[in-house]
Structure formats: C-alpha cells, structure tokens
Specification:
Elements: E1 2-7, H1 11-20, H2 23-26, E2 28-34, H3 37-47, E3 51-55, H4 63-73, E4 78-83, H5 88-94, E5 101-104, H6 109-138, H7 144-156, H8 165-172, E6 180-189, H9 200-213, E7 220-226, E8 229-236, H10 241-257, H11 259-262, E9 266-271, H12 281-292, H13 295-298, E10 303-305, H14 315-332, H15 335-350, H16 357-374, H17 383-392, H18 397-437, H19 444-451, H20 455-466, H21 470-488, H22 493-499, H23 505-516, H24 520-527
Parallel strand pairs: 1-2, 1-3, 3-4, 4-5, 9-10
Antiparallel strand pairs: 6-8, 6-9, 7-8
Helix pairs in contact: 3-4, 9-10, 14-15, 14-16, 15-18, 16-17, 16-18, 18-19, 21-24
C-alpha cells in the first residue's frame, strides 16, 4: 500500500479528503494527518510517505518552504497542492517546483481520484524501476549496456545526487579511470507535424559516427537516446580533452552534412563541464542541458558549451504581465487577443540583452502551464505534455513563441467549440423531436414541452441557429417527405397528406405549391 500524508490547517478539509477518496481501490492508506507545516515535515521524516497532499498556505511553515524541505527529506516524494482561486498567483509559483498536481477548492471527488491515480502510477513506476535496477545489478556481467543506460536515466531523472566512483562501477557497470568525466547531448530537432519521432536509422547512424570518432578515445562510455536527444557520458585522459572536442565537432559536421537525407532534421551538440570526480557528474549534466538550449538563440548545427552567464531577464515579472493580459482573453475566448499577448511578450523579451536559451524555454513552458491552469486543462489529458514536448523540439526563438501561440489557439478554439456545442444542444434535441413527430399535428408548444425549453428562448435560439422559424422548418421537413412519397410510392395525394402531418388537403396542396412552385399532382407527373 502507498502511504499518504494529508496536511491542512482546516480539519474539515482533511476529513473531506479522507472521506472522498476510495483508498482501497487506489491501493493507498492515509498514514498521517498534519494541521501545519511543521507537523507535516515531522510526519514526512518519520513515515517517509509516498504522497503528500498539502494546502498551499498554512501557519508555521508555508507551502513553498514545506515543499523544499520535504523534498530534501524524501526526494521521491510526490506532492499535490490544495489551493483556492484567491491563491492562484501563489500556486503558480509553487508549480515551478517539482509538484505533481493541484486541487482547487472546493475539492471534487473526481479531481481528487484522478490526481491520486496519476501520482500512484508514478510511485509504482518508480518502484518498478528500482526492482528492475536490482535485477540488473544481479546480472551485471551480462547487462553492462543496460546498466549504463540506467545510469543515464537515473542522472536525467535526478535519482543520483552525487554518485561515487565505487557506485558507478558496482551499480552501473561503469568503471571510472583516473582522468575526466564529461556529459554531452546530441539534440535532434524536427517538425512534429511532419515526423512522429526520430527513425532508428538516424539514431544508429549518429551512434556509429560517435563510436568511431569519439568513443574509441575514451576509457569508458555510456550513450542512449531519450526522445529527441542522445545523452552520453565519457571518461577519458585529460590530455585527450581537445582531441575529443574536435571529434565531437567532426561528428556533428557529418550529421549536418546529411541532415536533408535524413529528412529536414536539425542537429546540435552540447557538452557539459569536464569534471574530475564522479560526484560532479550531475553538474556536468546540468551544464550540458543549459548549453543545449542555447541553440534556440544561437542556431542549430553548433557545438555548444556551458558556463554562460544568466541575463537580466525578470521571468516572474514577464509571467505576471502575461497572466494579467490573459485574464480578459480567457474570458472572451479571443484568439486575436491571445495572439496580441504573445506579440507583446516577444517585444518585451527582444529588449533584454543576451537572453539565454534556457531562460526562454523556461519562460514559455511556465506561460503554457499557467495558461493551461486558467483553462482548467487536466494534466491527464496529455495536452500539456504534448505542448512541452513540442517546445523541446523548437530550434529557434521564433519557433518557441509560435509553439506557445499555437497551443493557445488550439485550446481556445477547442473551448469555444465546446461552448458553442453546449449552446446549440437544445436545438439539436428539438430537431430530433421534429423529425420523429413531423407526421403528427405537433405545435411549437409541443416541442418546447417535450424538450423542456421556454417558448420565447426556443424561438429565438431556433431561428438564430437554423435561419428560419419553427413553422417554416416543420413545413419544409413535411414537404420534403411528401416529395419523396410522391416519387417513390403509389399512395394517393390524400394519403400522403395524412402521412406527413396535414389534416387539410387544401392546406397541404397550397403549402406544397408555395414551396415547390408545383401542386402535388404536377410534381408526381414530372418526377414520379
């Protein structure tokens, strides 16, 4: 069973969370309840729970401080926040931390269950990964490649804070020789509307080039693709540092030379800081990850290196301005206004000298996430994940801003369509009723009674959506059916009159001629 701690200074909120969730179905149990941040930290340290559900504002230790300290105690702790609409700005800041979800007050059962299911899945996947790791360790002699790939994965997902030299050898099959360690990233950008993913042929070609030019110069190597990026760890002699840099540059040039053969792919290569101890590998990775985002401002086809200073960008101020501008846009669902907000954001950023790629990427991702929160887009829908993946494939500033603009447009269009569908739903129901009962002496009052709408509301909406009044629409449906019967049957005109809902033959004939310019007999002679 997964252990859950609930922290809220309102006892009724704690009881509500306990009562709403089906803990047995989730495979979870409430291990502890805290009424303030200090108690929550004590429970986290004592119980080592899998999940913490906490109010964003509590006495003593506030939400952000609680998240930071709890993560220091239990790095794998999954956290979901409880907040009200009035605390949105504070929640927005908290979402930049490693928070797995948020719940808006008043808490709904469906939202709580959905969030807990998502966090439970992450906990179990992590446990499964640990089990796999244990099995791989037992078979290390046969599984060095898999173990080394697991090293890259654990570094990427921050499961290794400061690995020791002995740990790399015993747990990951990566023996470190005296010398330097360095992480590099081969980034491949493409248009996700054209390609679904990078082909295995491209990955194999890239690894083949690296193997012949770079890996042969090293003591030990690990390399693996994750999505659109290949991550590598190199261990080599210090005197080969420049030679390896040239070899990496050579590989990049060869990939660039063949990029159109591969199909409009863009290649970049980033290297992290060369470090002299295993414990500093996460630093080298962080350097490389920051460096690879520089392709957004510097362009692709480059060998990118770390140690670039931050600019004077005030991301918080820009995001606050973006959110304020988006308030009215979301209320009106105006695509034009949303585009204008993007253009204003572009203008603000363009005035900042030497802005870094990682700063831009973080800004756009944060803007997209807060936009999604405002539209109440559920993380489980996959919409936000797709947006983040698309941002990760952007190779220029223009493409990055376009990615945010297109995301806004798609979500606003989708929400507008949903609202429009809800607005015309009464008309769809009424049309269905008319088609089922047109052969009866139905009236406007009958349709309104059957569908539950007032006569004045229905009449206005019906004419707005169909372009004609109820009587004219009913007459058209009846005459269309009469035309079909005149063409396809030998029924008398009087029988057809009754079958399409008219009790007066003279009235039927008059209506038919008015709508077709022919009386029923003439129509049958011409088309029957």
């Amino acid at each position: 069973m997964l252990k859950v701690v609930i922290a809220d200074d309102e006892a009724r909120v704690c009881r509500l969370v306990q009562m709403l969730a089906d803990w047995d179905a989730l495979g979870m149990e409430v291990a502890g309840i805290a009424s303030n941040g200090f108690e929550a930290l004590e429970l986290v340290e004592a119980l080592m729970p899998d999940i913490l559900i906490t109010d964003i504002r509590m006495p003593g230790c506030d939400g952000l401080e609680l998240i930071e300290k709890a993560k220091l105690i239990s790095p794998n702790l999954e956290i979901t926040l409880i907040s009200g609409y009035a605390q949105f700005e504070y929640a927005q800041t908290a979402m930049r931390y490693d928070v797995g979800g948020y719940l808006l007050k008043p808490i709904k059962k469906d939202a709580l269950m959905s969030t807990l299911e998502k966090l439970g899945k992450k906990c179990r996947e992590r446990a499964a990964s640990a089990a796999i790791m244990e099995r791989l360790r037992q078979e290390s002699d046969k599984s060095h490649d898999l173990l080394r790939n697991r090293l890259l994965e654990d570094l990427l997902y921050k499961r290794l804070d400061a690995p020791s030299r002995e740990q790399l050898k015993s747990e990951y099959g990566f023996p470190v020789q005296d010398g330097l360690l360095q992480i590099f990233i081969l980034k491949i950008d493409y248009d996700p509307d054209i390609f679904r993913s990078i082909s295995e042929d491209v990955k194999n070609k890239a690894e083949e080039l690296l193997d012949s030019a770079v890996f042969s110069l090293c003591f030990t190597v690990a390399f693996q693709f994750y999505g659109s990026a290949g991550y590598g760890v190199l261990n080599y002699e210090p005197q080969k540092r420049d030679q390896i840099r040239r070899a990496l540059r050579q590989c990049l040039n060869q990939l660039e030379a063949g990029k159109f053969i591969f199909g409009e792919l863009k290649f970049s290569l980033a290297v992290g800081k060369a470090v002299d101890t295993a414990e500093k590998l996460p630093l080298s990775l962080h350097n490389a990850q920051n460096a690879v985002t520089e392709r957004i401002v510097e362009g692709t086809g480059r060998l990118l290196e770390a140690a670039l200073p931050a600019s004077q960008i005030n991301s918080r101020k820009l995001l606050d301005k973006y959110n304020m501008a988006m308030n009215h846009t979301v209320d009106t669902l105006s695509t034009e206004e949303a585009d204008k907000v993007i253009y204003e954001l572009i203008g603000e950023v363009s005035r900042i000298p030497s802005v870094r790629g990682y700063e831009l990427l973080d800004l756009i991702l944060s803007a997209g996430r807060t936009f999604a929160v405002r539209l109440n887009i559920n993380d489980d829908s996959g919409v936000l994940g797709e947006f983040e993946d698309r941002c990760g494939l952007c190779s220029s500033v223009d493409k990055l801003f376009k990615c945010l603009r297109d995301f806004q447009r798609r979500q606003l269009d989708s929400l507008r369509e949903h609202h429009e569908n809800e607005a015309i739903r009464p008309i769809r129901i009424a049309k269905q009723y008319i088609h089922q009962h047109f052969n009866e002496p139905i009236t406007l009052e009958d349709v309104c009674a059957a569908t539950g709408f007032s006569i004045s509301y229905f009449s206005t909406m019906f004419k707005k959506e169909t372009g004609e009044g109820f009587s004219k629409y009913l007459s058209r449906i009846r005459i269309e059916r009469a035309k079909s019967l005149l063409q396809d049957t030998n029924l008398s005109i009087a029988e057809i009159c009754n079958q399409v809902g008219y009790s007066d033959l003279k009235h039927f004939t008059s209506t038919f001629k008015k709508m077709t310019s022919l009386n029923p007999g003439q129509y049958r002679k011409l088309y029957g």
